[in-house]
Design goal:
The protein is α+β, with helices and mostly antiparallel strands and 288 residues long. Helix content is 22%, strand content 37%. It is built from seven helices and twelve strands. It has a twelve-stranded antiparallel beta sheet with strand order 1-2-4-5-6-3-9-12-11-10-8-7, covered by helices on one side. Helix 2 packs antiparallel against helix 6. The chain is globular, with a radius of gyration of 19 Å.
């Protein structure tokens, strides 16, 4: 287990400071704001700790309200909205400096039998083992650029293998511009069998590449002086059990952008082709 994954698992082990009140921290890095996937994952941990173990999360709906300050802890207040016979609903508010920075509603459901179908098969893409790592792709793109090399050489908790072009590649070669973005990912260590942990880690990984999918549609990339952006809201539906330490294909597309906003949606498939998670996010993108 690399140091970045170990640190992430530590960050997800929230401190309970009162009934339904939890405290989380951020990595000790020089970053301007807290990564949105981290806040969503920690909020889901907080909600899950107030729910019976036989009820698994099946959906979450979240809003990113203010940038998170990585220098101070985040307090997560959980409201027990409803405890029904089959469903449990929780609302979580993440607070810093006395103000809400993030809100999330999450619904949990007991395991029930029912009709089942999957409309679309998993996209036919190369196997993850045949693809270079994210770091290798970035090194090929930026070569000896010292600033980029320092950033990309840092250990990452999740291993992403891109099938599609990176935004920086499409910025240099307009023929690579696309509204579709496919990437394999997994956490490269054997993880505990706790089902909530695997769902939480999927939520963390889900926020890495959705804004990139909107940028890819326009040949734009982070690092340009005139580009700024952030996640605005985030929704996920969890369809079946899965393991985040097995390869999953994250098939994403951006059907629309306009008015300084962009929409991206994604589907996470197990390596065997089963649809496990659906994701939709709206993001803010400003140019100029």
């Amino acid at each position: 287990m690399n140091s970045a994954l170990k640190e992430l698992l530590d960050l997800l082990d929230l401190e309970q400071i009162e009934l339904d009140i939890f405290r989380g921290r951020s990595p000790e890095e020089r970053i301007q704001r807290v990564f949105g996937g981290q806040v969503a994952a920690q909020a889901l941990v907080a909600a899950g700790r107030t729910v019976p173990a036989d009820r698994m999360v099946h959906s979450l709906h979240a809003y990113f309200i203010r940038p998170g300050d990585p220098a101070v802890p985040i307090v997560y207040n959980v409201e027990r909205v409803r405890d029904g016979r089959s469903f449990t609903t929780r609302r979580v508010v993440a607070i810093q400096h006395g103000k809400a920075i993030f809100t999330m509603s999450a619904s949990f459901h007991i395991d029930e039998p029912g009709v089942a179908h999957q409309a679309r098969p998993m996209p036919d893409v190369p196997a993850p083992e045949s693809l270079p790592t994210f770091q290798q792709r970035m090194f090929e793109t930026f070569g000896d650029d010292e600033a980029w090399r320092e950033w990309t050489s840092k250990p990452r908790p999740v291993d992403f293998r891109y099938v599609s072009a990176l935004p920086w590649e499409a910025q240099r070669d307009p023929s690579l511009i696309s509204t579709e973005n496919n990437a394999w990912f997994r956490y490269d260590a054997e993880l505990p069998d706790d089902p909530l942990l695997h769902v939480v880690l999927a939520a963390y990984a889900s926020d890495f590449t959705l804004v990139d999918t909107v940028l890819l549609a326009h040949g734009l990339a982070w690092g340009s002086a005139n580009i700024s952006g952030a996640s605005l809201d985030h929704a996920m539906w969890f369809h079946r059990p899965f393991r985040a330490d097995d390869w999953m294909l994250y098939a994403q597309e951006s059907p629309w952008s306009g008015g300084a906003r962009g929409l991206a949606r994604g589907e996470m498939y197990t390596a065997s082709g089963q649809l496990a998670v659906s994701v939709v996010q709206e993001c803010l993108i400003r140019v100029g």
